[in-house]
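Researcher: Here's the sequence for the chain we discussed earlier.
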Amino acid sequence: MRSLYLLSCLFLTATVTAQNCLEKGAVPLGTGEFTLTVLGTYSTGVFDAGAAEIVTFDSLSGRLFFTNAAASSVSILDISDPAAPRLIAEVVPDVAGLDGVNSVAAAGGRIAAAFQGEQADSPGTLVVMDTNGVVQATFPTGALPDMVTFSPDGRYILTANEGEPNDAYDVDPEGSVTVVDLLGGLDGATVTTVGFTDFNRQRARLAMAGVRLFGPGATVAQDLEPE
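Model: Thanks. This is the structure I predict for it:
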């Protein structure tokens, strides 16, 4: 079963270096080694189906949010008592055209989740929620948004749109990056999706530089798959 582990030096899938831990006093100086202590676990009860793949922590609410691809939902976990994590909600946004959640990120009390569309070349959807899972806004993205992140100041939300081909490779959408500018708030946000079509005429030059381009009949823009 997929489980979430709450650790003494880091939360879940976050990465820290030994130096970071040294600075926080979690490691004996000079050893370069540290021990992680499990504080608690939460089991989704789902085995081998991406039910706890991407995890983010919101410091304002003290809650964890993780993607459950098996249920196409975002799970909200209360970890105010790390020894006894408590599931608050499994959020399945009531938004048309969603077919699987791939990533989730948190910043300043906002939660952003990237959902793919129903077909390989369908546009994806960025869903912005509050920490209770209430949908506040949705924004279109390129095909197959596979990672979402906030800029450090919280002004921008970005999705890396992988644009993977279907299994038969007869549908191969272009990869892209979507940028949502929140300067005007959620109601006044602007959405820009940036592709790679300008690189199509540089295929030979890119190949000579070591860029791997291999999709059958694919353009450069189709082969580049940001994730």
